[in-house]
Amino acid sequence: MKHTVTTIQAMRDNKETITMLTAYDYPTAKKVNDAGIDMILVGDSCAMVVHGHPTTLTATMDMMVLHCAAVARACDRTMVIADMPFGSFQYSIEDTMKNAARFITEAKVDGVKFEATPHHIEKTKAIVQMGIPVVGHVGLHPQAVGALGGLKVQGKDIDSARKVVSEALELQEAGAFAIIFEAVPAKLSDYVTRKLDVPTISIGGGPFCSGQLLVTPDVLGMYDNFTPSFAKQYQKFGEVMIDTFKQYKEEVLTGKFPGEEHSYKMSDEVLEAIEKEFGAA
Ligand code: KIV
Q: Are residues 224 and 270 in the same domain?
């Protein structure tokens, strides 16, 4: 059965921890789905970890819709959430609603997430009123990397802690069905998790949230341009890939690949007829 807002809320109410990973393509999303992960975020981190840009700011609606559609096709169990890229929700409520709708109609995802600040609460309400499940995002907003002066922990001092708490409360009030806490102190996300009725999902928000999220290329060891301290690498697939490609090159150069089992056969008569028609090679 596919996860919905109802099953995710029930997990939180029953104190079952929610698991979430990012994915950007069909084969990876299928493995995440088959592994029983509850939710996928098709993050705008895609701009960095898939497209090689230095920040998330260059993700576009067309880029995100394409990746979201591939991921959604792979998931018959995992709930798929599209991340609204920079510029897709900052201009107007109408624009935000149209862009959120594109993710539902074109990509067929189950909900959207955006880095809503208090300036965007009306937009959150508008999308919720369209019937689209919305995930909020507090703490570090990577789309504000320029204004923040880097990808830094948020909520350590009283002013920024107040901001995290009030934004989370406003997002819940606006109808967000879950809220991501990125790079905030564990004690703060623990406090807010106990205050809120909706599930909280941590990515660098400590162990006390209702669920955990990581960026899949970090988990697999496939992206090393930037690794946040909260990320955990479970595998070194990047190294496995380099070894594999080297082995392939070696086999091609030494003639070990392709072997007979990788080649198609034809009868001698056909080749003889070809030689007769076109001359010997
Ligand atoms: O784009 C992304 O992967 C995200 C997570 C880091 C929350 O927004």
A: no
